[in-house]
Input
Amino acid sequence: MSIIDTNLNFADDTKDYWNNFWENNNGYGSSNIDPDTNNKKLQKYHQLLWSKQLPNGEYMDLQPSQDSYGTNILLWKDFVLSSDSLINGFRWPTMKSLIDELKVELPNYQQFQEEYIRKTYTIGGMIIFPRHRNSINQRRGCSPFIKDRVDLTIECIRLYYEGKENPLSYVLKSDEKFFNLFNDFKGYINYFYLQDIVSEDYKKVNIYIGSGNLKDSPLPQNTKEWFIWHDKTIDFLKKRNARIAQAMS
Output
């Protein structure tokens, strides 16, 4: 039996996560409580998962901080690492037109979104990144060409390892010491069980919607694209959770 429960969702497991959820974010849904910084079980899962031998031969032995760096922080050597959700939900007031169309197609829209959140907040939807001002988890959300998309984030990391410019080049280069731990893109992908978002030869990232050229809007342009995004994301989560369960059994 796996020592990590890949069915556990950190939304339900985080106290008060759902309080006033659909009143927040101008009625588009948002929590005032972030599992990344408030759920100790999530921190423990990250510690168990990523404390292992690195591709460069070292052993990453993660230890929880004593709150000197903030809550739910993991430390190793001089690396300060924190949890980040890989998956977004596109529930933003700026997407009102598309969301209104989704509500027509999904009479149970709020319930549908809640189930999506529960699935994305399993360990398969989580990762760790270096924590600092203007970190990856901040910049990928702010970038108009990424908007927190997991596929485009991984594409930027692929391009980084190839020495090619991308919307996250600056922050990835600033964390060069971290990315060097994995030697190359394949090493990074395998370490974090991300194989199901890349091709078998690791040369391409599976772009879920749009061109993936990192120049166009990353947002779904219609409900058809939104459902494609949803289905491919859920498929990725199921496969990554299965990889994690197998590795930790």
Q: What stands out?
A: The chain has a mean pLDDT of 95. The chain has ten helices and four strands. The first strand starts at residue 63 and ends at 64.
